[in-house]
Amino acid sequence: MLLTSVIIVLREVLEAALLVSILMSLCFKLGIERSWFKWGVLGGVVGSIGLGSQLGFISSLFGGIGQEVVDAGLQIFIYICLLYICVEFINHYYQRHAVSGTLRAVLVIIILCAMSREGSEIYIYLSAFQSLPHASVSLYSGSIIGLGIGLSCCALFYYCLLSFSLLRTLILGCMLLTVVASGMLLQAGKMLIQADLLPDGQLWDSSAVLSEESLSGQLLYALAGYEATPAPAQLVLYLFGVVCMAAVVLTRYWHWQRRKVSAKVAGYEE
Amino acid sequence: MTAAFRLVLFAVSVLFYMPAIAGKPEFEVAIRQHLFEPSVIVIPANTKIKLWVSNEDTTPEEFESYELNREKVVLGGQRSLIFIGPLPAGEYPFFGEFNPKSAQGKIIAE
């Protein structure tokens, strides 16, 4: 029970906390106030309990594939929100301005959705098994260890990102957000395949090189949605995610670069 | 191709797709005392199947398989549907994430 609790909680915490640490470090470097964080976490806790307690009803939706549809929907929604966030971060880098209410709201919504997805499973697990005799001590101590390891990994990640210069943190942060967001599309694809809304298949099997069960496999899963045996539909979604996000981010970057150059030229002419 | 024609094409393809969903072979697996029963499920290779997972325990379980790329929480007393395949012939282990030591099984596609 102890080890199972550590693994379950660690797996769920890592995924959401890695995303939060990337967003937090970028906000810190860009001078964006971080009051949204506490509201996101609060919303995430409420969302986890809400989603977890309603899972029976959600599962019965759409002829028994409600769980998959809601999970895929949340992940696609987070991808779109992260796309917006990357653009806003680049805008903020070139032109510091007061943080808009929309940006704050989107940050809260991302944390809320990411935490609810992961937290609902922890809520279901803890609420169901705490009533078993002799289980609660190992259940809670395991969960606290799992939570501690997950949060420590993310704190380390957060401070690593902060150690770079502003421009490097921005570039690295946008690249990481692209990987995380595209990984979410890959996982959404997995859910849609499980619900029979996308075709299944196996492109390759890399489990001999990097097993999903191994520690590095789990870390890569949390960061980039790693699958040892991806389906063609998942790869298409992943590539679409990367290309789309990279195109939007680079277009925004070039837009500001051009403006900088034309402003310089205008300055010389005067 | 007009938008209306595309809409008709989509509706027709959905209509043709619906019987395909209904026609998939169905298999059952139960969870009792944190064990899968039966623990070995033999399914036809290269065929998409519907696997119904009935959790007869009062506690929830997560049906999980790295080989099958599947994960689904099944609450206590609930019956859940998971689509599997089409799979090439072989063995595909699965386990219950909440009770990984006892809840283990495999799907054999042949």
UniProtKB/TrEMBL annotation, chain A:
Superkingdom of source: Bacteria
Q: Which residues form the signal peptide?
A: none
The UniProt entry lists the main location of this chain as membrane
Query: Looking at the keywords, is Membrane present?
Result: yes
Query: Keyword S-adenosyl-L-methionine: yes or no?
Result: no
Q: Provide this UniProt record's keywords sorted from A to Z.
A: Membrane, Transmembrane, Transmembrane helix
Q: What stretches pass through the bilayer?
A: 6-28, 40-62, 74-94, 106-126, 138-162, 169-189, 235-254
Localization (cell): Membrane
* Pfam families linked to this entry: FTR1
Task: Report the membrane topology from the UniProt record.
Answer: Multi-pass membrane protein
- Give the similarity note: Belongs to the oxidase-dependent Fe transporter (OFeT) (TC 9.A.10.1) family.
The name under which this protein is listed is FTR1 family protein
In its UniProt entry, the species of origin is given as Zhongshania aquimaris
From TrEMBL, chain B:
Q: Which domain of life is it from?
A: Bacteria
Q: Name all EfeO-type cupredoxin-like domain ranges.
A: 10-109
What name does the UniProt record give this protein? Cupredoxin domain-containing protein
What lineage, starting at the top, does this entry show? Bacteria, Pseudomonadati, Pseudomonadota, Gammaproteobacteria, Cellvibrionales
